[in-house]
Every structure is written in C-alpha cells, then in structure tokens.
Amino acid sequence: MPDRSDTPHRLDPAGSEQHAVNERLRAQGPAVPVILPGEVASVAVTRYEELKEFLAHPDVAKNARHFTALREGAVPPGWPLTTFATVEGMTTADGDDHRRLRALVTQVFTPRRIEGLRPRVEELTARLLHALDEAALDAETGASVVVDLREHFALPLPMAVVSELLGVDPGMRGQLHQLSNLIVSTTTSPERALAANRAMAGILGSVVVRRRAAPGDDLTSALLAAQAEDGDRLTDRELVGTLLLMVIAGHETTLNLITNAVRALCTHPEQLALVRAGKADWGDVVEETLRYDSPVSFFPFRYPVRDLKVGDTVIPRGTPVLASYTAAGRDERAYGPDASRFDVTRRPSVRHLSFGHGPHYCLGAALARLEATTALAALFDRYPDLALAVPDDDLPRHPSFVGNSTETLPVRLRPETPQR
Fold first, then answer.
1. β-pair type (40-45, 321-324)
2. Average pLDDT, the chain
3. Residue 420 resides in a domain
4. For the stretch 101-137, what's the b/e string if a residue is b when 16 or more beta carbons lie within 10 angstroms of its beta carbon?
5. At what angle do helices 118-135 and 156-166 cross, to 10 degrees?
6. What is the pLDDT of residue 417?
7. Looking at the domain assignment, is residue 378 inside a domain?
8. In this predicted structure, which of 37-46, 102-111, 193-202, 261-270 has the lowest mean pLDDT?
9. φ, ψ for residue 322 (rounded to 5)?
10. How far is it, in rounded angstroms, from Cα 397 to Cα 410?
C-alpha cells in the first residue's frame, strides 16, 4: 500500500536532502501534493512511467494562462518561481506557438552544427585545464593546493560555449551566471528575484541591440534575421525570453552535470576504474550521472488543462505540476532494486528523463553530452589522482529544489605531498 500522508510535503527552498525527500515522495505515490514557497499548492510527479506519460500528455500545457492560482492573483508578488512560469519562450509555449519558436531555435542545434562545435569545446577545455593548473598552485611555495573545480572548470566551459553561441561578450558572462543563479535559486527573496530578472532582461536586451546593429554568426543574429524576414514570427519579448532561457538552461544544467559526475566518480573509484579498463566509456558516465543524480530535480511547471488522473491521484485543472527528474531517475520500478547505486556499466531498458520527454524534449541535449564527455575525459586524463578535498556529504548544496548539485567542488588535483 502507498505510504500516504494527509499533510502535503512542504518543499525546502534550500533543496536539502533531495534524494531522501524523493524516496519518501515516491513511496506515497506517482503524483504527490507538495507546498511551494509562498504557500502555493502544487503536485510533484515522482515515478518514471507516470512522469514519462505526463510529460507527453496532450492535456498538459506549459503556458501560464492555465496556472489557476497565478491567474486569480493568489501567487505572492516577487515569487521566486515566477520566471519559470511567465517568461516568454519555448518552455512556456504550447501548440503552434511552441512549434514556431522551437523551429527557429532548432536551426542552430542540428547534429552537424553540434558536432562542428567539438574542436571549439576541446580547445576551451584545454585552456581551462591549463588555467586550473595555475589556480591549484600556491603562488609563493609552488605547492599544490585545494581548488574549486566547479568555479574554475565546470562553470566556465558551458558558460563560454553558450555565450559564444548567442553572441554574448565575454565580459558579461560572470554577471549572467550570478543573475542566473539568483533566478534558479528557490531561496531568493522577492526583491532580489525581481531585480535579477530585470537585470538579466536588460543585459540580453543590450545583446539584441548590438547584434541588430552588427549581425554575426550566432543564434541571436539568426533569430533577428528571422524576425526581420517575418515580423509575426518572433516578438522582442519572445526573443529576449528565448535568450534568457538558453543562458540558464545552456550552462546551469551542464555545470551541474559535470559537477555531479566528478562527485560520483570520486566517491565510487571502482566505477572510474571500469572506465579506465575500457569496460565503460565517458558517454556511459554521463548517461548514468543523468539518471543517478540529475542536474535538475523538481522542474517547474506544467498544468493539466482538465482534471487529470495520474496513478490514483486526480490533479485538478490548472494546478502547477513539478517534474521530479531526480526522483524518477532512482525509481526501482524502472531501474530495478539497485536504482540508487551508481553503475556506469548499467544498460537500462528504459532511458532516463533528465532531458525531458515529448514535445519539450531539451534541444541542447546533444551539446550538453558533448561538453560533459569532453570535459570529463580530459580532466581525468590530466589528473588521474583527482580527489575530493572534503567528504561529499559535507559539500554545501546549491540552494534550490530546481537545480540539483553542490555550491562548490573543492578538489586536490594531485596526491597531497607528505610533510617531512
């Protein structure tokens, strides 16, 4: 029998103990009532089969006009999750609008174009590893010191790639990441959330102005060209909204993916040994990390356009629903009794859902895989003895139940030299 509770689970804005929370929610059923910050009632879909079906269900929408509480003014001003609901772009569009916007962006994410980025991703990776060497050396003694791999490697690689794709100047990358962090965090205060959204829109609006005046070989210029060709195809708000979503999704998720993969390999050295022995490859590491410790945990939002039964739970029309990718990734019904074990040789009969499913499947999935496999292969080839500098359980979590990772990743690149 399901482990039911009469009291909806209140999601911790700091995202603590996500996998333990997921286990409890999965035990309650495939669709579980939860309370979001601001006392907003929601439902989390936590089991693999039900989530896969829900993501592709024809009676499930993405446009916030279906969000009953928001439409009726019951969502507090400055709500930290507002951007996920209201930004104009592919992820909040349905039907013809979604197909129109997705078709415009798809042109830059063709398999040929993604594969064409491989040399640039390899070049950026090599440069970052060289800089990592310097960051890990004490300037005075030359001794090896602890370095934050997330800050110096896992972050700048996807940030550089997505910035170059969009035509964003290098000087803007740091600020865009900081603003993105505030937008993704579910602990951000209403005032800071509103300010971060305004600042992000302002920066990306300036990118649009510059690219309109001086087009280049980038996605922003391509979208502007489509807009000029047919003004009805893309509004300025949709253009800025599309860029905002691509900045966030294009680096936050890959940042978390690389971070989580390094953590998993360092805490499971026998799995790293299997890769080195040729019994698994870096693609296997990436896919297993996506399943075992998805970069995104509770992803907002989808809305049933009618009362919809998921398992034995009826989700009322207009309820904001979270897709719990981390919960589905460890569902024993899909992955067997060892679903909570990291195993790079796993060959599951079902594919993980970390890039979504159905019409909103992530367009950047191939690019994320390219970046992560390139980064991990080069990192562990250069530093075969790389190790966490503190226990994994002691690493501070990124303060969010949307993103799933740690805030830092302190490592030693080489073995510690014994003191004489």
1. parallel
2. 91
3. no
4. bbebbeebbeeeebeebeeebeebbeebbeebeeebe
5. 140
6. 56
7. yes
8. 102-111
9. -100, 135
10. 13
For 129, residues 6+ apart whose C-beta sits below 8 A from its C-beta are 153, 378, 379, 382
Answer yes or no: are the C-beta atoms of 296 and 403 closer than 8 Å: yes
* Residue 297 placed within a domain: yes
Q: Which residues contact 317 (CB under 8 A, 6 or more apart)?
A: 66, 68, 303, 304, 305, 306, 307, 308
In a domain, 419, yes or no: no
Q: Which residue has the tokens 């994410």?
A: 109
Place of tokens 């004490």: 138
> How many domains does one find in the chain?
1
Q: Would you state the structure tokens that stand for residue 258, as one six-digit string?
A: 């690389």
Dihedral, 327, 331, 335, 337 alpha carbons, nearest 10: 130
Cα distance between residue 324 and residue 308, in whole Å = 18
- Longest Cα–Cα distance in the chain: 72
Give the span between the Cα atoms of 402 and 85, in whole angstroms: 13
DSSP string covering 90-128, please?
GGG--HHHHHHHHHHHHTTS-HHHHHHTHHHHHHHHHHH
**Amino acid identity, residue 279?**
K
In our burial notation (b when 16+ CB lie closer than 10 A, e otherwise), range 38-55 reads bebebbbbbbbebbbebb
Q: Phi and psi (nearest 5°) for 296?
A: -120, 130
φ and ψ at residue 301, rounded to 5 degrees? -130, 160
Distance from C-alpha of 105 to C-alpha of 199, rounded to nearest angstrom: 23
Domain that holds residue 137: 9-412
Say if CB 165 and CB 218 are below 8 A apart: yes
User: What is the pTM (predicted TM-score) of this model?
Assistant: 0.94
CATH of the domain at 132: 1.10.630.10
Distance between CA atoms of 111 and 366, rounded to whole angstroms? 8
pLDDT in the model for residue 419: 45
Map tokens 């439409």 to a residue: 71
Three-state SS letters, 382-410: HCCCCEECCCHHHCCECCCCCECCECCCE
Q: Residue 374's closest CA among 263, 254, 279?
A: 254
Structure tokens at 204: 């990306």
Length reported for the chain:
420
pLDDT digits (tens, 9 = 90+) for 285-334: 999 999 999 999 999 999 999 999 999 999 999 999 999 999 999 999 99
CA-to-CA dists, residue 330 to 48, 112, 284, 341, 354, angstroms: 8, 33, 17, 9, 12
- For the stretch 228-237, contacts whose Cβ atoms lie closer than 8 Å and that sit 24 or more positions apart, written own/partner, are 233/100, 233/104, 234/100, 234/101, 234/104, 235/88, 236/208, 237/88
